[in-house]
Amino acid sequence: MRIGELARRSGVSERSLRYYEAQGLLSAERTPGGHRDYGEWAVDRVIRIQALYAAGLNSKKIAQLLPCMRDGDGSPSDSATPRLVDELTAERERLDRLIADLVRSRDVLDDIIDTASTGLEAAPLTGSGGRPPGH
């Protein structure tokens, strides 16, 4: 499939696909006319790459991981090393801490919203322009 179709099917821009190729994350055959020609496997590969970027991994780490992931047909890969597993475990723990921090931040915002909403409901809006008198 051509790069435009891969972009459409994966939801990723053509520019990003070219970047993935430059980083060694994605490869394509070339047609006699020099156009990129991707196999069906490329859609799943691009979706995996996007998920790994969303998890906070950089392209170098993703390039290390991709050979260790299950192949498109679901068969396991045996390319993982103990060091890579340790690095991934540490990254997972970092993400867990980040998620916990984000949940705490969201809880604080929820408290502020609840307090502000309660204050707005109790305040009379009787001045000009909807402001309390004297403002």
Description:
The protein is an all-alpha fold and 135 residues long. Helices cover 59% and strands 3% of the residues. It has a two-stranded antiparallel ribbon. The N and C termini lie far apart (65 Å). The model has no long low-confidence stretch (mean pLDDT 84).
* Strand portion: under 5%
Mean pLDDT: 84
Assembly state of the chains shown = single chain
**Low-confidence parts:** none
Q: Structural class from helices and strands?
A: mainly alpha
Individual helix count:
5
Provide a concise account of the structure shown.
With 135 residues, this protein is mainly α.
Keywords:
135 residues; mainly alpha; Multidrug-efflux Transporter Regulator, Chain: A, Domain 2; 2 domains; two-stranded antiparallel sheet; 5 helices; 2 strands
What's the structural blueprint in terms of helices and strands?
Layout: H1 3-10, H2 14-22, E1 29-30, E2 36-37, H3 41-54, H4 59-65, H5 82-122
Antiparallel strand pairs: 1-2
Keywords: DNA-binding
GO molecular function: DNA binding; DNA-binding transcription factor activity
Protein name: DNA-binding transcriptional MerR regulator
